[in-house]
Every structure is written in C-alpha cells, then in structure tokens.
Amino acid sequence: MCNFLSILQGKIEKMVEIKVFVFNAFEENTYLLIDDSKSCVIVDPGCYSAEEQDNLKAYIEKEGLKVVSLVNTHAHLDHVLGNAFVKRTYGVDLLMNEADLPVFRGNTILAENYGFPEYEVVNPDAFLNEGDNIKFGDAVLEVLHVPGHAPGHIALYDKNNGYCLVGDVLFSGSIGRSDLPGGDYDTLIHSIHTKLFTLGDKIKIFAGHGPATEIGIEKRSNPFCGINA
User: Which end of the chain, N or C, is surrounded by fewer C-beta atoms within 10 Å?
Assistant: First the structure.
C-alpha cells in the first residue's frame, strides 16, 4: 500500500491510498484507488481465478470500501479479465475509451487461445475522453489519451496527489509494446513525451506491470524514451 499526500501552500489537501494486486498469468497490476472517505476506484481488474476474485473482495470488505467506479486504461485481455466480476459484485459502470472497442471485442477469441476459457464479456457503460474527470470522494482523476500501445489507451492523472496510472504505456526502464493490433511505435513515443513527460519530474507513475517509478527517473534513464534516447 502506498500513501500519497498533496501539499499545496504548506497545507495537506488530500490523501489517496493506492493498493496494488498482481493478478493472472501475465502478472498484471490491478489498482484500488482509495480516498480518505473510503470511496474506491478499481482500475484494470485482472482477477481471473476464484482465488484472485476472493482476495480482491476480501480486502474491499475488510477495509470497508465503497466501490464507485470501474475503469480500464485499455482493453487488452490481461487488464479486463475481472471486469464481469467487479460489475456483478459492486454494481458499478465500466468506463473506457471508445477507440479501444475493436481490441475489447477481440478478447473472446484471445481468451480461449491464452487459456482463459471462463472469461466473461461485459460491455462498457460509458466512454472516457481526453480531459474528462473521474471523481471519488474528494479526489479527482483527469483522463489523458495516450495511444500507441492500444488506440484507446488512457492514463489517469491525480494532480493534487502527485501520481498517474499509465497502464502499459510506460514502465520502469521500459515502454509498452507497439507491435500488437492497434499499436504504433511513433504514436507511443509521442504520447510519452507530450502527455506523460510534461506532468513533472516528481510525479509517481504506476504501470500495468512491474514496480512504480517517477517521471524524472524515466526521463533521465529510460533507454527507450528518455530525454537523451
């Protein structure tokens, strides 16, 4: 669990807790964003097995959380395996970017091929676009459109609390694949430089796989997209 405070003009404005679960065979990061009012947003639920689903549900119950939103940063299979479970259990809408619908619709075939025969398809309830806001408790997430890994890929930026969930666009020391359907390398690099690297060096970033990092670290040292790359 990671705690982040936003300090503006010497005052603590808000606090958001970030709980990370690593799910499924792809070791995908599922995030719970928790406001101090216990409102919770679930991002990219990769929980597939009954054990994984039980672990997620048990934590939410133990902490007394109120799940208010379900968001997919993008529609690749490993990030959406738990969509149906979360919608059914908590009665929340599924939010994503419309440009990822072709990717989303291809998951039925991919699920069989990758050994997830019990994958349940659920349709999105609403679409998120650049500049939209997702509110939970007193916290606000700004939606950034960051295509390249997937055409409808979005990032979720919490300016007040100093972090951004970037899905599979940028990793610690690496970047997302651009050779999958709908991907494009030049678009991916453009998204990183114009949407993520402009957020500020101290912004914490949380990716769809692997550990957290900071914008400044990736600018200086990421061999794929650093400033000196």
Answer: N
Domain residue ranges of the chain, discontinuous segments joined by +? 2-221
Q: How does pLDDT run across 60-116, given as a tens digit for each residue?
A: 999 999 999 999 999 999 999 999 999 999 999 999 999 999 999 999 999 999 999
* C-alpha to C-alpha distance for 79 and 72, rounded to whole angstroms: 7
- C-alpha distance from residue 1 to each of 21, 98, 135, 140, 167 (Å): 10, 31, 21, 19, 18
Strand positions, DSSP E, 72-132: 94-96, 126-127
pTM recorded for the entire structure:
0.93
Check: CATH 3.60.10.10 for 2-221? no
Q: At CA 23, angle to CA 20 and CA 27, rounded to 5?
A: 95
